[in-house]
Structures are given as structure tokens and as C-alpha cells.
Amino acid sequence: MKTFDTLSQAINALKTRGYTNDFNLHPEWIECQPLNQKLRPEEFHVDEVHRFEGMTNPDDSSVLYAIAS
């Protein structure tokens, strides 16, 4: 798995590999609003995880999951 310096680099690379939709996290599911689609944990598989931490503030961090359903 390739590592990336920035979140935007990771998103762009995943898009070129076919990960095209953006899902947001909810307490019981993930949701893609443009597709009006909700997936529960048993309905998708996490293919990759990419973590990014802020340079000056540890609270400024992000996690990007590449999923398949």
C-alpha cells in the first residue's frame, strides 16, 4: 500500500483507482447523500486505511478509508 503526504493526494490516487463516491460516517452506518445510499458495517469491506496528522496540532488529524461494497 502506498503512503501519501497529504489527504488530497490520497483522495486523488484512490479516485484514479475507481473509488469514486464519498461516504460520511454516522453512528450506525455510512452514507453517500448524492446516491441516497446508506451502508451498515456488514455491507462493506475496508480495503485501505490512510491516517494524516496535523503538523502543529495533534487534534488536526484525518482518517481516510477506501471501501468496497
Give a structural overview.
This protein has 69 residues and is an alpha+beta fold. The chain contains one helix and five strands. It has one helix at residues 7-16, and strands spanning 24-25, 30-32, 37-39, 45-53, 61-68. A hairpin with a 4-residue loop joins strand 2 (30-32) and strand 3. The chain is globular and about 35 Å long.
Percent strand equals 35-45%
Q: Could you give the count of β-strands? A: 5
**Strand arrangement in the largest pleated sheet:** 1-2-3
Described by its quaternary structure, the protein is single chain
Number of helices: 1
Extract low-pLDDT stretches: none
Range of helix content: 10-25%
User: What distance lies between the first and last C-alpha atoms, to the nearest angstrom?
Assistant: 20 Å
Task: Please sum up the structure shown.
This protein is 14% helix and 36% strand. It has 69 residues and is an alpha+beta fold.
Provide tags for this entry.
about 70 residues, about 15% helix, 5 strands, two-stranded antiparallel sheet, 3-stranded antiparallel sheet, 1 helix, single chain, alpha+beta
